[in-house]
Amino acid sequence: MCGRYASTRKRDELLQEFEVELDTGEEIGPDYNVAPTKQVYAVMSRAPKEESAERPVRQLRVVRWGLVPSWAKDPSIGSRMINARVETVAEKPAFRRAFASRRCLLPADGFYEWMKAPEGAKPAKQPYFIHPEDGGVMAMAGLYEFWKDPSRADDDPLKWLCTCTVITTDAEDGVGHIHERMPMMIERERWAEWLDPRVSDASRLLVPALTGRLAAYPVSTAVNNVRNNGPDLVEPLKDDGDRAVLF
User: Which of 88-92, 174-178, 220-224 is least confident?
Assistant: First the structure.
């Protein structure tokens, strides 16, 4: 499962990287410890309100991590909907409508996973930072949904809540020994189709990640506490000889 990740690129960088056509102007700061219910960047394609629009327009929006289905009675359900398994995403009631037409890309520098340490070792679980070996941006496959708050007036800017989830898959061979699951990534050549709401069957776009493109190293357990946030969280853990501990 993906429960933490890092996303530190500036909005202007993401606008260029993902060839965004509509800049909503929403901005959040770099986050080295993205956790459920936090605000995150999402790239999506949506049809403009103008009736004359010929196609959906790619945009960058700020959404909350933890998908709240449109039919939910309480938005707190989102804290349990941070991941959607690729094996069942097209059938699960909480995700199938979003999978059909509300797909997005969630930019990340990398993600964290915890590996169980040998018996008696401390810490009991060692966090690792897993990232593209070439330093490029990760485009995690995601879904987004809009939830209407019945307790708010129609003209209340908080009337609508936009949330997202990360689709997960089996971990590729290079990092599978750390954790058996990882975020599903969408290759650049498939971005346009994945984001297009007119593509109703996107299952064929969900293919396993290519082996050998991810690198990983252990990091400080400071990442365990969501209140900790800074570039030190993604620094390789040092051993007593002040050498980076890799595998």
Answer: 174-178
- Rounded Cα distance between 239 and 212, Å, is 25
Q: What is the spatial distance between Cα 164 and Cα 83, in angstroms, rounded to a whole number?
A: 9
Which residues are catalytically annotated? 2, 113
Which residue, among 81, 82, 85, 64, has the nearest Cα to 72 in the 3D structure? 81
Whats the size of the chain, residue-wise? Answer: 247
Task: Tell me the one-letter amino acid at 152.
Answer: R
Distance between CA atoms of residues 114 and 171, nearest Å: 13
pLDDT digits (tens, 9 = 90+) for 145-168: 999 988 888 888 888 999 999 999
User: How does pLDDT run across 34-52, given as a tens digit for each residue?
Assistant: 999 999 999 999 987 765 5
Q: Which amino acid is it at 218?
A: P
DSSP string, 7-31: E---HHHHHHHTT-SEE-------E
**What DSSP line would sit under the chain, residue for residue?**
----EEE---HHHHHHHTT-SEE-------EEEE-TTSEEEEEEEE--SSTT--S-EEEEEEEEES---TT-S-GGGGGG-SEEETTTTTT-TTTHHHHHH-EEEEEESEEEEEEEPPTT-SSSEEEEEEEETT-PPEEEEEEEEEEE-TTS-TT-TTSEEEEEEEEEEEPPTTTTTT-SEEE-B--GGGHHHHH-TT----GGG--PPPTT-EEEEE--GGGGSTT--SGGGGSPPB-TTS-B---
